[in-house]
Amino acid sequence: MMNDATLRKIDLNLLLAFSVLMQERNVSRAAERLLLGQPGLSAALRRLREALDDELFVRVGRGLQPTPRALSIAPAIEDALSGIERAIRPQAEFDPASWQGEFRIGMCDNLESAFFGPLAARLLQLSPGARLIGIASEKRDAARRLDEGVFDFSVAVHDEPASWHIRAPLFDQVSICIYDEAQLGLKAPLSLKDFANVAHVTVSFEGNTSTGIDMALNRTGDVRQVVATVPRFSALPMVLKAMPAIATVPESIGRCMAQLHGLRLCEPPLSLPTDPVTMLYRRVDQTDGRARWFRRLFIDVANKALEASGCCVSIPRAAA
């Protein structure tokens, strides 16, 4: 059996030189293929002969004749070199048209309302054998569920990522006010007094009524009255159609609600903080062809959806 010291003497360059010599049976032609001078190839062959304790090639006329030892090890060396070549060969370009399987995306419900429908429609056009799976996701569990393989990426307001994740900025989510003009006889633009005195409906999965809006109002010396809190944005339009109240929501879903339910939009009468919407995905998926194509598709679709709804923000393509 070959000992460790002998193995350490044999590197990839020596194996490649052996393989080319087996094919060419000529030092000059082999050296040309390897982009080496003949002295360099001769030195490599000498090292390989010493390591294997065999002549390996014997000169016959102007060519080389492999020894029985060389012939016996040649198939294994060829298999090893072929395996290395396959491993480092560039990946084939992902073909969505022929691919069959699932694409999985995690989003909170306000972003899902704005983007999931257009994303599903576009995916059906480009990858008819694929299926889009939407996963309800909140920022507090997005990283854990990403590591568990629940979805390919998450779109939300994420916390600082782990070193094995990538958090790519998408857009800054601004707030907009929405109400039913038939229920609430207010005309835009709203005054701060009108905004503070009218009844408010909030959205909170956990039932919280205090938000950054209350902190902003406190700085002006005002307070608001929250009369109802719903756990999902999908319930909000029906609530606003049923009572004289106003809600302050992310602009992307607010514009969708206004178009679908005939609600009125207006700018908040005070400065409110923006939320940075980001895409969170695993670092190991950064160069994967399928995953990269899906991320880029989402960005293209989301940009078109934002533009069509009237939002003034856009997503840089480099985010994918």
CATH architecture of the largest domain: 3-Layer(aba) Sandwich
**Which structural category fits the helices and strands?**
alpha/beta
Share of helical residues:
40-55%
Gross morphology is rod-shaped
Side-by-side strand order of the widest sheet: 4-3-5-12-6
Keywords: Activator, DNA-binding, Nodulation, Transcription, Transcription regulation
Pfam families: HTH_1, LysR_substrate
GO molecular function: DNA binding; DNA-binding transcription factor activity
Domain HTH lysR-type: 10-67
Which helices and strands, and how do they pair?
Blueprint: H1 4-9, H2 12-24, H3 27-33, H4 38-52, E1 57-60, E2 63-66, H5 68-88, E3 101-107, H6 109-126, E4 130-136, H7 139-147, E5 153-156, E6 165-173, E7 175-179, H8 192-197, E8 199-203, H9 212-219, E9 225-230, H10 236-242, E10 246-250, H11 251-261, E11 264-266, E12 275-282, H12 289-309
Parallel strand pairs: 3-4, 3-5, 8-9
Antiparallel strand pairs: 1-2, 5-12, 6-12, 7-10, 7-11
Structure description:
- The protein is an alpha/beta fold and 320 residues long.
- It has three domains: 4-88, Orthogonal Bundle (Arc Repressor Mutant, subunit A); 101-171 and 280-309, D-Maltodextrin-Binding Protein, domain 2 (3-Layer(aba) Sandwich); 175-266, Periplasmic binding protein-like II (D-Maltodextrin-Binding Protein, domain 2, 3-Layer(aba) Sandwich), CATH 3.40.190.
- It is 44% helix and 21% strand.
- It is built from twelve helices and twelve strands.
- Strands 4-3-5-12-6 form a five-stranded mixed β-sheet, with helices on both faces. A three-stranded antiparallel β-sheet has the order 10-7-11.
- Strand 1 and strand 2 (63-66) form a beta hairpin.
- The model has no long low-confidence stretch (mean pLDDT 89).
